Amino acid sequence: MGSATDKLTALVADPQRFSFSADELRATQVAALDERFQERRDRIRLLAMRARDAGIERITCIADIVPVLFPHTAYKSYPESFLMDERWDKLTKWLGTISPYPIEGIDLEGISGIDDWIERLAAKGYFISCSSGTTGKSAMLIASQKDMDWSKIDTVNVFSWGSGVEPKQDRMIVGSAPVASVPKNRTIAQAQYDAYANPEWPRWNYPVPPITVGSLTSMVVMRKKIADGTARPEEIAAFEETSAARAKAIEDAVPATAEHIIAHRDKKLQLSGMWNGLWQVAKAVRDRGYGRDDFNPDNSIYVGGGLKRAQLPPDYQQFVYETFNIPSDRQFQNYSMQELNSGMPKCREGGRYHVPPWIVPILLDKTGDAALDHTHGEMEGRAAFFDLSLDGRWGGVITGDRISLDYSPCQCGNAGPSIRDNVARYADLEGDDKIGCAGTVDAYVRGVA
Amino acid sequence: MNTSVLPDAEAAEPVVSAPFFLRGEVLHGTDVIQKSRDLGVTFATPRIPFDRAVPPRTEVPPLLNVPLAEIIDFLVETGARLLSPDNDHMQECIERMCKTHILPRAVVENTARHAAAYLNKQTLMAEVEQNFSDPRALDTWVPRQDYTGRKSFVRAFAPRLIHVLPGNSPGVSVKSVAQGAMVKAVNLFKMSSADPFTMVAILRTMADLDPGHPIVRSMSAVYWRGGDEAVERVLYRPQYFDKIVAWGGGDAISNVIKYLGPGFQLVSFDPKTSISMVGREALANEATIDEVADLCSADVMTLNQEACVASRFQFVEGPQEDVDRFCERLHHHIARRAAASGDVRPLDMDMREQVEAMILMDDEYGVWGRTDGRGLVIRSDEPVDFHPINKTANVVRVDSLDDAVKWINVATQTVGFYPFHRMADFRDRLAAGGAQRIVHLGEAGPSTIGNPHDAMYPLHRFVHWMAHEDGVEGR
């Protein structure tokens, strides 16, 4: 990495890292963006093409980087047929167009499925994470060992800054969400365990079959087969059966987790999960007759992600905190995404997500084509970020999120850029009732979602 | 202090009034503020006066005893008025569409002309004659007798229809009015947010001609946001309507489906994908390649590929080297047509990403043109994942057109075919796969007047077939 980049990433554990204003950071960030661009432009083939098309030679201001940011969809640009036909050679080649490091030395003989392919890549230091696209394709994000090492440090720093909970290895960690078994998630879970868990108490993993990339993509593959008309009735019946069994396992995991929590209510707990699962577990605990008075007032909680369209009562957060006796100043939340390698923790005083110095936030117009003229105050737009810490893929990404970014100091006293707690996905905001006669066979596929 | 700056501030946009039409009367109002993303406008509508939009079943439909010939005359008269420069209702609509439509003005104006052209006496009569073995059943109770001597009268009785209209297509609005009138239906048109104006403009044109005409008294047009339960739970009932005539797929249809039941049926015009099949005869020599590629480009570029009949996948039979020569010419002709229409919309982000991945994987794919919206051809061994749109052709190379048949699916509408003499050999297999039309390559647009649409004769399905049994002869 270059010197400007190093300067910014060196702040990873600095307790004052969120205090630098955007104005203070700008010159270093621009220099770091240019360093990153110069280092990577000839190594990432997609970036080279973008830079050539846009005629970009150097980055002299933040807006210069916009034409070479990758939309989040860039990581799902592989043809689905490669998955369906298990063309690992072609899929590997596709990965090579977005990886800064040549993908070499992978044994492609006799691969039993996508999970096997991903394991073989991991063995050679190429770590693939998969976003859990619900009906469509999954994004495949490649990362390096360096990125895994960074995640390990960042996740602990982010949580302790945002929650005020110090890493003292004194808690029992209880997972309350089915988590995709991808290298990044496993690394983060392990780092959290090492920092916060009493080593004598194993982590409670949500008792559901592991969600692998293979299980995520099997849905995509089935959907495509149905659309093509090649899925046989017996095949669909078997798929429906598997889906039902999986749904049942998730349902059964709630009482089992509640039972575990009740059995260990004397211990200091660190709950982790997403709102939907946490609320359901809390409800099961209450239904069993337990609540606030039964739990340690020093308990903590790590909530990731939003509601993901789950329907919960309006007081769901309050309900969860109260059930497990979690102090009101520990309401940790983190804004991040699989595409980035670092988190943006929410402060407790101002309730805003704080952007660290090594992430350059850029507000774009709704379509994601151009940077908005935003130098001070709060403004709304499409979020784009450049995560300077990323090593194993290009750090610049255009998200699907609508955010309000503020360059003014936050109530919590930090002067760095912050994001209002009203992040929304453009895809959820739209849903116009426009209809037309031209359309795809997707409209004819029922029930694979 | 509030320092927020909202670039999308809705207050800055003008609010356009979108009135309703209720059986001859225009209802203005600003009770509900709606947003049209496509038109980029905020529009205000009245609340739906349900009782006025749904006449009771105790009323005989106003058109029932108006002769079909008279209905058609009125429709033809309407057609002549639609594009008249002094028709302010329509001019305003066309103007608004041209300003906001994704396609250039000339293309939009052309669609409006096409729409009006449907209101032609011969065309309308052909529709009726193809839909009904005995069109008299629309005008009268037609007597018949079976071989046992049992007698009856049969009537294609006026139905009660809700039409869920697509946006951006004045053609569908005009056709829906004409078909609703010819079957003498009581009609309620649900307009789309993409165009909550045109249908009302058409109906006001009719009301200007004769405000008391039974056609005018049979038509209402309103807007509500698709899926709005407060409206749909009220209206979507067999007590009020016999059939719901809906265009599109996805949410538009799944919203409707939950209300279907005995007595309330769906007639759906489904979203469709069209393709081309090009035999090796096309690759015989350079001149033929160019000629066939030009025909093919005409199908790709139908309504600049916004229409369902526009070809998206082209299955071309031959060795890769020859197929690539075809691709080069196809790209030339698509780009030529694109430039002539002045349409240079950029590709959407998702599709652009996928195409660029293909450019980078150049030993698997051939790509002619760039992702700049000026015309693009992608050659692959099987259809690409995305829906080729915005002047994009996906040429799928096959050894034999027999291999292309497996890609026909239930969404396939039109198959443009070359050479013409091989069509008969394919039509049964295409139909079995789900396709609906096979046409000469280059002629995806036109169809023989009165031919089935969406694998059915729609008018025949619209009507409420009623029998009057009249005993047995001589008994």
Please provide a written account of the structure.
The complex is a heterodimer of chains A (449) and B (475). Chain A starts with a helix and ends in a 20-residue tail after the last helix. Chain A is globular and about 65 Å long. Chain A has helices at 3-9, 22-40, 45-54, 80-84, 88-96, 114-123, 145-163, 183-196, 213-228, 233-263, 275-287, 316-323, 426-429; strands spanning 70-71, 127-130, 140-143, 172-175, 269-273, 300-304, 333-335, 344-345, 353-354, 359-364, 378-387, 396-406, 418-419, 424-425. Chain A has 13 helices and 14 strands. Chain A folds into two domains: 3-143 and 353-429, no CATH class; 165-331, no CATH class. With 449 residues, chain A is of the alpha/beta class. Helices cover 37% and strands 14% of the residues of chain A. In chain A, strand 5, helix 11 (275-287) and strand 6 form a beta-alpha-beta unit. In chain A, the strands form three sheets. In chain A, strands 1, 9, 10, 11, 12, 13 and 14 form a seven-stranded mixed beta sheet that branches. Chain B is an alpha/beta fold and 475 residues long. Chain B has two domains: 10-271, 3-Layer(aba) Sandwich (Aldehyde Dehydrogenase, Chain A, domain 1); 273-440, Aldehyde Dehydrogenase, Chain A, domain 2 (3-Layer(aba) Sandwich). Chain B contains 15 helices and 20 strands. Chain B has helices at 50-53, 68-82, 88-100, 105-117, 121-131, 170-182, 198-209, 229-235, 251-257, 286-300, 320-341, 349-360, 401-404, 423-433, 458-462; strands at 15-17, 20-22, 25-27, 32-36, 41-45, 142-145, 150-157, 160-164, 186-191, 219-223, 243-247, 265-269, 273-278, 311-317, 366-368, 376-380, 392-398, 412-418, 437-440, 464-472. In chain B, strands 3-2-10-9-8-11-12 form a seven-stranded mixed beta sheet, sandwiched between helices. In chain B, helix 3 runs antiparallel to helix 7 (198-209), helix 6 crosses helix 7 (198-209) and helix 10 crosses helix 11. The longest helix of chain B is centred in the last third of the chain and has 22 residues, at 320-341. Chain B starts with 14 loop residues before the first strand and ends with a strand. Residues 1-11 of chain B have low confidence and may be disordered. The interface between A and B is large, with 53 and 62 residues.
